[in-house]
Amino acid sequence: MNLKLRDKIRKAIGKLRNERFENFANDILRREYFQFGTLETMVNKEGNQRKSKPDAHIFWEKENKYFIFNHTIEGKSKIIKDINDTLNGKIPTNLIYKYVTCTNHPVGEERYEYESFVKEIGCKYEVLSLDRLTDLSLKYKNILINHLGIDYQEEISFKLFDCGHRIKSIRVEREISKSQFIELVDIKSEKELENIENNVLECSSELILEVSKLTDVNIDWIKHGTGKKYSKLSIYDLFNTNVYDLIKQGRSVQKVIICVEPNNMNLSFLFKFTDYKIGIIAKYSNYAFWNHDEYFRETGYVVDLLNELKKIYDKYSHNVYGRIISEEDSKLIHTYNCFPKAIVDKLQDDGNFFVESLFEDELSEKSYYRKYQWFMEFHKLYRSHILNIED
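Predicted structure:
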């Protein structure tokens, strides 16, 4: 990401006034919501904005519902006024599917106040803030020149990198065919891809960025082969980011795999977002904690661990699976240099449902997992530390 360019775009959007901002926002919305229907604006045939709410809307014919859009260059009080004016306007609230605020101001915790107004009528809410509009401007690059006077091609420094062999490794470990891969990134033909992967052709910064967005592989690793291939996933972000923002970021969780390596009680959380993007949290390494119960009881380690596991299970219970993995696989995950597709896709009788059994208040005498000492010790800690039941 060219941070200087992003900052320049952000400042340019922040300086847009009145009708220029509304025209800019409408152009973004036409592209973001095109699949739902035609964007109808309040701009008359002379090009002037009529004073009416909402500023724009889309009628989603398939569902007989409306997407409502309001734009403002002012702050919190105006945003709330626009919401109230629209919800008390001519469109019946039971027909509003989603309400969207577009603003060239940054938006912080006040987002939740806006959501609270909208949720009262049972519709969805999204705010396209200054930073979100900046990102979308980079996505739809012709908007930069049309509305902000910024020529993207002139702004970026065009550099090429000899890293095709690393891009090949990313493709191969995901089992993506050449023909599939060129449909996912901006490569024109399989022959061009072959030349890139054999280091006959160099890779542009744009291609590297596309591959990184598709796979979550760190850009520096693709360019230079340095650093960790993957960053440690932030569980805080997963639990505190609006679900719609997660979807737009490609981080809507399809499946959670909780892996245990029993010899050292290494734990790993794998979050599958797409077939090409799996986030890793490798933690609690090399602690046979049932042998050190007093230490972990005093430090609160066990309580934190079990609470975090329970939080993940409760949030994603229909998509949480267990895996009992080898020490070798565990070490590989902890390097943050592997794509653990084989572990996520592996189906096994041993371990698939140990997480579900772990959080049962009472284990059945016939419980499959009673044969594992590590599981029995783990369940005992759950009963004593979370349920406050002493056996």
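Summary: The chain has 20 helices and eleven strands.
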